[in-house]
Design brief:
- The chain is mainly β.
- The protein has one domain: Neuraminidase (6 Propeller), CATH 2.120.10.10.
- The protein has 1 helix and 30 strands.
- It has a 4-stranded antiparallel beta sheet with strand order 3-30-29-28, with no helix packed on it.
Length: 445
Amino acid sequence: MDWQKFDSVEWRKCLVAATLLIALTGLVAGPGFALGDGKPDNSYGTKGVAAFDADPLSIDGLSDMTRDKIGRIVLGGTTYNGPGGNQAWFARLKRDGSLDPSFGAGGVALFALPGSQFVSTVTTDSDGRIVASGIWDTPMDRDMWVLRLNPDGTPDLGFGIGGGSNYDSGQDFDLGYGAAIARDGLIYLVGSTGDGSVDRATVVRYTTDGNVDPTWGIGGAVTLEVGGVSARALAIRLDRRGRVVLGGYRRNANESTDFVAIRLTRKGELDPSFNKRGFKVIRFMRGQQAAVSDLAIDRRGRILLAGAADIAPDGVVDGLLARLKPNGKPDRSFGRGGKVSQSLYGTRVTLARIRLDRAGRIVASGSARRPTGVGRALLLRFRSDGSLDRGFGKKGQLQLSFGEPEASGSTLVIDSKGRYLLGGSVFDTGLVYVTRSLAKYPRRR
């Protein structure tokens, strides 16, 4: 896992891998119970799985999905190997899993610019507009990129130029990995700037009309120093006080990489009330290659980090979780000393997305690649103490392939009824898949 050499070729490989996903959900019935716990919701798609082809001339990679304010699922990703090159695509599904014809062309919208566009994350604002983050790659440069679409899938021409806005620090590698929207509509775009070898975690703030906010940092950007040789921020959330919380990795002089969590003040400075330095480095094993892929903040303000690293003695990648208290110190009530390492008997495990369900349980999506080389989309559920919830699926986990030879998973949504949706695509078919499963919840008292 050579995270520091995340150039455009590796970015594309990782993004294609990260786009093979599926979806699961839990349906709550009556005051206390749902109909199943990890069982397919057969009312969704075909036997619980919906499939579509965003661009029949390309391989469709799914990067992320979210739920809009009326419960529809919005997806975003990148097309590969098609005549139009690598382009951003978006789709919207109705509640039954079918494409929503009121969105784009038959439920799908393509957004193309000169060069290549890569989508990292997708979210929606209070007006139902879609905000996506990623990278705009041209032969001359690589920029952080944010895009806004209207609820019908057309570019929002009142945002940036033609609906999009890029950030160029003047260096060669400006990479966008995530976006978050504040209550006042300001958009925070997170990623890294640098030369691809020595990089710095960077947060850019945009106004509601798509212009870089000059009141934030220097020229609208905050570049962070968190020690080490290089650092990248790969995930972002805003806490209840509107502070920016980041997760990513820090590379050390010996080429190892560690989890890093960062919190900023409302002014964009490292928050001294968070581990006294504004950041916390988390090491599972000396010499590891670890990186955060996603984070969540629970009701108590604790920060959950999810990712992966090659920490096992056999070199097989394990999925990793860590939880910090609001002050940035390890939460020792979680796992071992605030850390959980999830392996599956020699199987390569990566965690891509993490969510908290309405019972406070931790749900993670990702991928499992067996020693035989066969890949499966993965859904795990953990209790609040970090142990696998063995009442879910098969001893706390589900491995899915959408009926294809193999698949991989990365994105996850929990709907208003508590059902889990795991979304992805299968490389051999070029199709996007979303599956929904049911979940049980504790009886209400």
